[in-house]
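Student: Hello, beginner here. Can you help me understand the protein record under this note? Any guidance would be welcome.
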Amino acid sequence: MNRIISIGLISFIVLLIFFDAAQQKYYLDTFDLYPNGVNISLTALIKNHFIRWSIWGLISIPFGLLVWRKLPKDHSQPSIQCILVIAGWILSCALVAISLISLQSILAQNTSWTFDLFGSSFIFFTFQKGLTFLMTFLALSLILYNRSREKTIESQVVEIKNLIRKSTDLEKALDESNKEEPHLNIKTGYKVQPIPISDIIWIQSDDYCVKIHTHSQAFTLRKSMKALEEQLTPYGFIRIHRVALLNLSFLHQINFDSSKIKLTNTEELPLSKAGARVLKQKLEKAAL
């Protein structure tokens, strides 16, 4: 977009050069305004206007740098003071350009330089180029302002993307940290105590209830052994006996001769034939 605007400005100036030269040629031919009766070709006029616009171009470089530095680089609008300063620069640069063009015109005529000659030349070019130079300096200022706003928007878009990425990463981290470990809820009166499954060593069948054995204590839960077996099998629990559901994480040693299982806490549990068969299959499947 900025390249298109820049090309458009350059194309506009080129058209102005040809238009000014053609207009001047028309007036010279129509009203016979040639100095000393010497005919001036259209090519020479185009060359003169090109030189004058080249002087404008040289002045526009420091002018553009000054305006770019003066424009705010955040999302704020230019202050009144900033606008007045840039307006002063536009007027000053236009006057400087007209002064240099006047000097160049005097030198090109190979005439002696005088204040009167410079003054008349300055007035002439002020009427001929003054308004055009002011408008082109203003257009350049607007282009730079537009580019400044675009860069601000681009930086804000980058900041927003970074914030979104950080927010997404934070949400993922929070989701990971907030993931609750599977647990059993043990009701005692009006209270509920969650017991993490990883803390459960084994579960003992006790009539219509079960006893949840952990390192610290045993909890009674009114639930069937069959229902618990279905729920906890995906978490590494195996029914080793009709009265025992074991967490394999706490398995220490198996004695198939005595049908006993020794746990990591030195406790021993009974092992049925059906339980031994399932346990063997499980261990063989997990073995390397």
About this structure: The radius of gyration is 46 Å. Strands lie at 183-188, 191-196, 200-206, 209-214, 218-221, 237-241, 244-247, 251-255, 260-263, 268-270. Helices lie at 2-31, 42-70, 80-108, 115-178, 225-232, 273-286.
